[in-house]
């Protein structure tokens, strides 16, 4: 097992691309999963340390049989379950198909991918799993109920995995980002419309993807050997005011 190999879902853009670029620069070999093959290729062509033979897997993570088939051969030190989707609707307006899609991508796929790679981690007697949840999984806001439910469930999955896998030296933790500026939300977060939301943050600003990286570096570090089941908030102090 190569202790330098990390599997990242949702790796083609946004937070996942930021993680991939940073960890590749730190000397880790990155295996990236995303549905958009062209964007995934573009992102991975620009990763540092190309000599590490970074790998892409352009697959739909909700195709659970395909995930199992593709990941059955993969032997990684760390898994970062980052892929996710959000939606802006009242709970009573969310259709069954919509809630199923959100849960499948944000929760069920993370569980299935974890279960596909855990057996090799057990054989290796070492592993790290990082689940990317959200502060909305701790305290929901209006119009994001379905997303908040899925992220709350991911937090409980993290705690359950940490208990079950501790005896195999597999450490499982979650990060709960606050509002992070990406290409998908930039037009809103950088506009005057976001003033009310920003006013809830003691640091009085939204974060960049890069501000999540110190936590990621700590959680993947092989020398970090006694931290599991932790839920790390990175929100500019937002939840401290609620």
| Name of the CATH first level | Alpha Beta
Structure annotation, total helices: 8
Supply the helix-strand structural class: alpha/beta
Write down the overall mean pLDDT. Answer: 96
Q: Tell me the Rg in angstroms.
A: 17 Å
Can you list the strand order of the major beta sheet? 3-2-1-4-5-6-7
Order of helices and strands: EHEHEHEHEHEHHHE
Which superfamily, in CATH terms, is the homologous superfamily?
NAD(P)-binding Rossmann-like Domain
Number of strands: 7
For the sheet with most strands, the description reads: 7 strands, parallel
How much helical structure, as a percent, in the residues?
25-40%
Q: Beta-strand level of the residues, as a percent range? A: 5-15%
Distance between the termini: 44 Å
User: Any idea how many domains?
Assistant: 1
Q: Which term fits the overall shape?
A: globular
CATH topology annotation? Rossmann fold
CATH architectural label: 3-Layer(aba) Sandwich
pLDDT < 50 stretches: none
Descriptive notes:
This protein is an alpha/beta fold and 242 residues long. The chain has a single domain, classed as NAD(P)-binding Rossmann-like Domain (Rossmann fold, 3-Layer(aba) Sandwich), CATH 3.40.50.720. The chain contains 8 helices and 7 strands. It has helices at residues 14-25, 37-45, 64-71, 96-124, 145-165, 186-189, 195-198, 213-220; strands spanning 5-9, 29-33, 55-57, 78-81, 127-132, 170-177, 231-234. Strands 3-2-1-4-5-6-7 form a 7-stranded parallel sheet, with helices on both faces. The longest helix is centred in the middle third of the chain and has 29 residues, at 96-124. The N and C termini lie far apart (44 Å). 38% of the residues are buried. The mean pLDDT is 96.
């Amino acid at each position: 097992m190569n202790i330098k190999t990390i599997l990242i879902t949702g790796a083609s853009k946004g937070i996942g691309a930021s993680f991939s670029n940073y960890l590749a620069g730190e000397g880790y070999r990155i295996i990236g999963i995303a549905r958009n093959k062209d964007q995934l290729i573009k992102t991975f062509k620009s990763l540092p340390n190309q000599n590490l033979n970074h790998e892409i897997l352009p697959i739909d993570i909700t195709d659970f049989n395909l995930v199992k088939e593709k990941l059955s051969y993969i032997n990684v030190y760390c898994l970062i379950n980052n892929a996710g989707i959000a939606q802006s609707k009242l709970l009573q307006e969310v259709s069954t198909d919509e809630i199923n899609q959100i849960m499948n991508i944000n929760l069920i796929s993370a569980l299935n991918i974890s279960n596909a790679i855990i057996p090799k981690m057990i054989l290796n007697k070492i592993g790290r799993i990082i689940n990317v949840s959200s502060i909305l999984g701790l305290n929901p806001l209006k119009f994001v109920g379905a997303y908040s439910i899925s992220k709350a469930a991911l937090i409980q999955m993290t705690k359950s995995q940490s208990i079950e896998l501790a005896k195999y030296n597999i450490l499982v933790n979650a990060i709960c980002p606050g509002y992070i500026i990406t290409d998908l939300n930039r037009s809103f977060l950088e506009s005057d419309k976001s003033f009310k939301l920003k006013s809830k943050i003691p640091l009085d600003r939204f974060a960049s993807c890069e501000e999540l990286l110190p936590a990621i570096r700590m959680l993947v570090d092989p020398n970090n050997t006694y931290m599991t089941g932790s839920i790390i908030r990175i929100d500019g102090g937002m939840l401290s005011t609620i």
